Amino acid sequence: GESVGLHLPTLSVQEGDNSIINCAYSNSASDYFIWYKQESGKGPQFIIDIRSNMDKRQGQRVTVLLNKTVKHLSLQIAATQPGDSAVYFCAEIAAGGTSYGKLTFGQGTILTVHP
Amino acid sequence: IAGITQAPTSQILAAGRRMTLRCTQDMRHNAMYWYRQDLGLGLRLIHYSNTAGTTGKGEVPDGYSVSRANTDDFPLTLASAVPSQTSVYFCASSDSSQGNTEAFFGQGTRLTVV
Fold first, then answer.
1. Interchain proximity A101–B31, CB inside 8 Å
2. CB B23 within 8 A of CB B31
3. How far is the C-alpha of B73 from the C-alpha of B108, rounded, in Å?
4. Closest alpha carbon to B13 in B78, B63, B75
5. Which residue of A has its CA nearest to B43?
6. SS3 of B110, please?
7. Integer-rounded Cα radius of gyration of chain A
8. How far is B103 from chain A (nearest CA, A)?
């Protein structure tokens, strides 16, 4: 059935500020955690991933932090730009076991960047 | 390079009718996925396939079936559509056999069941 009345959390920032988007995950057996960006009317696009045995990974203007103790994932975007405005989703995937290859998405966050 | 293609782009379907959403990729990816995204919500996994000939159930598989006869195609069938299946459907593929986590998504199919 359909979910009822859920709304995605929102984050509004000024251009040039740093943004931090958070996500709580549920499956401790996941091997990789991933961030995706979805612009209006489009499918999600891969941003960055992190393996479960790491706690930090940096990309271009983005950093992902993983805290397995509290099952928390965050995406930091440096010097946020208007083009970063989108919905951001965390995702997880298992590299083995009975759920091998099962890519599931977590909650999304709407990021709005004001000029 | 086409990447991953979904068809149709949009469809209005009468309740009770059968419908197959098509998905084709030309990247020779081993893994393929189907998601539904309801207005204002996240993506929920319907079914997935790690290799040709194998499929697995996702979070919301009821009312949907898939097949993976070959590497390139992963059709999603609604045997008897109901209004609650009104949604945007996304197909995706990834080269997960090489440890890649990046999934490539199609442009989506907007389905309205009336």
1. yes
2. no
3. 15
4. B78
5. A105
6. strand
7. 14
8. 7
Cis, peptide link before residue A9, omega less than 30° from 0: no
Residues near B105 by Cβ (< 8 Å), separated by ≥ 6? A42, A43, A44, A45, B4, B90, B91, B92
Label the pairing between strands B19-25 and B4-7.
antiparallel
Q: DSSP string covering A64-96, please?
A: EEEETTTTEEEEEESS--GGG-EEEEEEEEBSS
Strand partners, A33: A50, A92
Strands (E) in chain B, as ranges, are: 4-7, 10-13, 19-25, 31-37, 43-49, 56-57, 64-66, 76-78, 87-94, 103-105, 109-113
Q: Do B40 and A102 touch (CB under 8 A)?
A: no
- The CA distance from A88 to A96, in Å, is 26
Is beta strand B56-57 parallel, antiparallel or unpaired with respect to A19-24?
unpaired
The arrangement of strands across the sheet holding B4-7 comes to: B4-7, B19-25, B76-78, B64-66
Place of tokens 């943004």: A19
> In tens digits, what is the pLDDT along chain B, a chain of 114 residues?
579 999 999 999 999 999 999 999 999 999 999 999 998 789 999 999 999 999 999 999 999 999 999 999 999 999 999 999 999 999 999 998 777 889 999 999 999 999
Euclidean distance between CA atoms B99 and A13, whole angstroms: 35
Q: Which two tokens stand for residue A105?
A: 């998405």
